[in-house]
């Protein structure tokens, strides 16, 4: 198996409350200790990276330890910045009498389903681009499973993003032709939407429409590069965290199926908080009997995947000291 910390991008996901943030933070420290320059990024609206490290991080890259920076992306702030940028760009290419309509459309967009995911996706794409230039590895501590899977549905997200902007400009036939060329649901191969003899898609446009189209093409290419990186198992790994309990097993099973269907590279599962063998007492003895059944189910259900098993600790894991000890346990589990 490839060494996980040698990847360029790692996504850590799983059901809420199973220890994703602790695992992703410890994994980041492990990679940093192995000499990698690491950026740890939280995309979960309910950020807990700051809690794990016992110090504030926020929406700015912050140095946490030698070789390790961290960032908590604010989804609401991303939506506002994303829409402000789109509004500004549209106004550059639109007559002043259309400004009120553009602002109305942007207000509606702010409340529309998927607005936060679209803004987050663009920020993630830019973060990966930054990390490719300045870091060896970027680790994403992601939101609970359903949110993450929606975010990783890149073809649909790309189509929605493109079509949303297209609607603001649909009166332009030539721009519409470019968007038809870009939009996956039009039948174009989503793995390579630029694989088309029309290499110069904006050729022949007037300056106004050409500027709009070039803006959309630039964003589309950014997302396309992101998609290529996320699908490349030599660069990217998805790691899911679960506990030996019924609901996390069922949710992880659905997530694994969805990831495999999208051909995303799943590196394995971290089975967290297993009762230690020396935990005593009648209550824990009963829990252990049930846990053994769940562990057997995990071994059987996910037998084609690598499993990294971690024991439950007697105290909360926080701060550099606690996370470093957890990093050692991750290394001992085989990561």
UniProtKB/TrEMBL annotation:
Domain ArsA/GET3 Anion-transporting ATPase-like, first and last residues per copy: 8-331
NCBIfam families named in the record: GET3_arsA_TRC40
Gene3D superfamilies in alphabetical order: P-loop containing nucleotide triphosphate hydrolases (3.40.50.300)
Catalysed conversion reaction: arsenite(in) + ATP + H2O = arsenite(out) + ADP + phosphate + H(+)
Record-listed E.C. numbers: 7.3.2.7
Domain of life: Bacteria
The protein's name in its UniProt record: arsenite-transporting ATPase
PANTHER family the record matches: ARSENICAL PUMP-DRIVING ATPASE ARSENITE-TRANSLOCATING ATPASE, ATPASE GET3
Family: Belongs to the arsA ATPase family.
Pfam families in the cross-refs: ArsA_ATPase (PF02374)
